[in-house]
UniProtKB/TrEMBL annotation:
Residues 1-24 are annotated as: Disordered. The active site is at H520, D568, E577. The keyword Disulfide bond does not apply. The lineage of its organism: Eukaryota, Viridiplantae, Streptophyta, Embryophyta, Tracheophyta. It holds the Pfam family Glyco_hydro_9. This is Endoglucanase.
Length: 628
């Protein structure tokens, strides 16, 4: 059947497949729409679903939110990948090709002085020296100490000589080891950063190994300890050779070296306990050795508490050279270190007993030596140490009252160090006179510098900006300036011990352009030339005005007088003799002040508390779930 097509031409109508009215209407609309479209658009509309998909795939890329021309898309992707490969290639070349890095900034002068100060301990070693000792003019010495004494008959080989002689005084030696250990506990990261951690730990172990020989360290209870090896008293006119009567290299000593023991020496025993306890924290990662140190410390502190007495009775050799005025301060000092090493509250109870503090001089505010930290008076150091406990752990009752007292008194001591309070005189050159114009002032100045610098680090780590001196508030930077003023910087000027003084001389041998050339020291003053000089044979080297043939690197000499005067003469030990205790204070002060970046805080806040259990009871577990 054919019908008329209104658009022109004939229209065939199939009877078998006739369209409905709706179909015809749709066809008419479609035809009308096609007349308005261009050729490409018509091809899209007329093409079947399969044909449209094929053409779109070839020419365009559908990214979901946008349709892109396929050529543009491929060019963009290729460009990005090419740039990525090129950048990666350039980075690989940069990494593989050697190139110069800017050198690290040079160490500050505190760090430089510290390296040298530690070497003094190498020069003071007694016994068989390690191959890496680093002091070419020293050798094995006093290899029969203890064994040649008929009353002892055991090896006391090792340890450190005290000063320019060859005597081993255990009282200041133990204090020196405590100070070195304290500095490592607080500033371990600094030592590690400058490559001295292994060195100072080796020095500490050299000292503690010897201390362990001076008593029965395997026993829980002891009845005696060795006080010293060697004798120095020459006041009685005896011609018997000893360590002060003779001027010999330690390697050449052939006279008898008697051993002095004590049976009631609370001060010495408690200081030795402090040394071993502090070192046990330093070596806490070596459990066997740390436990050995703690065991020995317990026996020593127990011995000191049970057998009351001073180690230096009147007229003894100990009283002449290192007299102890009291043992109460050692009870506080040793008790504090025993608590940190063991976590046993019984030691803290002793250290914070009100009566103990009173006997130790905690309330002697009018005393001229109040706040002066020395190998004899440990109370100022003990107060700083226990203030640390209050600042960071705050154990509360029943310790809070005396800890608050120690904390307040530490604040007062820090105030007394500042020139504006006139508690102590200062020389015109700026050196504090903690020993009131007496000889050998530098050892007291470095100890005060260490406490001031350390306490300022405590306050900073506890987020405390400063402290009060009466109604006036002072920032922690004030303490740092005081500490630096005794070592190097004060108001941005070079300072006293390291060179800023009226004589423009460094008092640390080997540091700076000008330093003492004639330290009062037997080993350094006698040539290491293979010739053995007998007891009196070495005196020609003592009396000569020539500089010492061997440089005693890092030794801090005794220092100037109260008028800033200094005589570089070997025969006057009040000017030129270095000591173990003085250099221990110097090392501690230098590491505390040295500008060595280690993190947010200068100190290690937590290691000293590693043996202390949680301060408060563990809360009970939550109740079990309710069941109907």
């Amino acid at each position: 059947m054919f019908g008329r097509d209104p658009w022109g031409g004939s229209l065939e109508i199939s009877n078998a497949d006739s369209a409905t009215d709706d179909d015809r209407s749709r066809d008419l609309d479609r035809a009308a729409l096609m007349r308005q479209l261009d050729e490409t658009q018509q091809s899209w509309l007329l093409a079947g679903p399969g044909d449209q998909a094929g053409k779109k795939k070839k020419k365009y890329v559908d990214l979901g939110c946008v349709v892109l021309d396929r050529k543009i898309f491929m060019w963009t992707v290729g460009t990005i990948l090419g740039l990525g490969v090129f950048i990666g290639f350039v980075m690989m070349i940069v990494k593989l090709v050697p190139h110069k890095r800017p050198p690290p900034p040079p160490p500050d002068q505190y760090t430089q002085a510290l390296h040298k100060a530690l070497m003094f301990f190498n020069a003071q070693r007694s016994g068989p020296l390690p191959k890496h000792n680093g002091v070419s003019w020293r050798g094995n010495s006093c290899m029969k100490d203890g064994l040649s004494d008929s009353t002892v008959r055991r090896s006391l080989v090792g340890g450190f000589y005290d000063a320019g002689d060859a005597i081993k005084f255990n009282y200041p030696m133990a204090w020196s080891m405590t100070m070195l250990s304290w500095s490592v506990i607080e500033y371990k990261a600094k030592y590690e950063a400058i490559g001295e951690l292994d060195h100072i730990k080796e020095l500490i172990k050299w000292g503690t190994d010897y201390i362990l020989k001076t008593f029965n360290s395997s026993a829980d209870t002891i009845d005696r300890i060795v006080a010293q090896v060697g004798v120095g008293d020459t006041s009685k006119g005896s011609s018997q050779p000893n360590d002060h009567y003779c001027w010999m290299r330690p390697e050449d000593i052939d006279y008898k070296r008697p051993v002095t023991e004590c049976h009631s020496c609370s001060d010495l025993a408690s200081e030795m306990a402090a040394a071993l306890a502090a070192a046990s924290i330093v070596f806490k990662d070596s459990k066997t050795y740390s436990d050995k140190l703690v065991k020995g410390a317990k026996a020593l502190y127990k011995f000191g508490r049970l057998t009351r007495g001073r180690y230096s009775p009147n007229g003894s050799d100990q009283a002449i050279f290192y007299n102890s005025t009291s043992y109460w301060d050692e009870f506080v000092w040793g008790g504090a270190w025993m608590y940190f090493a063991t976590g046993n509250n019984s030691y803290l109870t002793i250290a914070t007993a009100p009566g103990m503090a009173k006997h130790a001089g905690a309330y002697w505010f009018g005393s001229p030596n109040y706040g002066v930290f020395t190998w004899d008076d440990k109370l100022p150091g003990a107060q700083v140490l226990l203030s640390r406990l209050r600042l960071f752990l705050s154990p509360g009752y029943p310790y809070e009252e005396i800890l608050r007292t120690f904390h307040n008194q530490t604040d007062n001591v820090m105030c007394s160090y500042l020139p504006l309070f006139n508690s102590f005189n200062f020389t015109k050159g700026g050196l504090i006179q903690l020993n009131h114009g007496g000889p050998q002032p530098l050892q007291y100045a470095v100890n005060a510098a260490f406490l001031a610098s350390l306490y300022s680090d405590y306050l900073e780590a506890a987020d405390t900006p400063g402290w009060y001196c009466g109604p006036n508030f002072y920032t922690t930077e004030v303490l740092r300036k005081f500490a630096r003023s005794q070592l190097n910087l004060f108001n941005l000027q070079l300072d006293y011990i390291l060179g800023k003084n009226p004589l423009k001389t460094s008092y640390v041998v080997g540091f700076g352009n000008k330093y003492p050339k004639r330290p009062h020291h037997r080993g350094a003053s006698i040539p290491h030339n293979g010739v053995k000089y007998g007891c009196k044979g070495g005196f020609k080297w003592r009396e000569t005005k020539k500089a010492n043939p061997n440089i005693l690197v890092g030794a801090m000499v005794a220092g100037p007088d109260r008028h800033d005067g200094f005589k570089d003469v070997r025969t006057n030990y009040n000017y030129t003799e270095p000591t173990l205790a003085a250099n221990a204070g110097l090392v501690a002060a230098l590491i505390s002040i040295a500008d060595i970046p280690t993190g947010r805080y200068s100190i290690d806040k937590n290691t000293i508390f590693s043996a202390i259990p949680p301060m408060f009871p563990t809360p009970p577990p939550p109740p079990s779930a309710w069941k109907p």
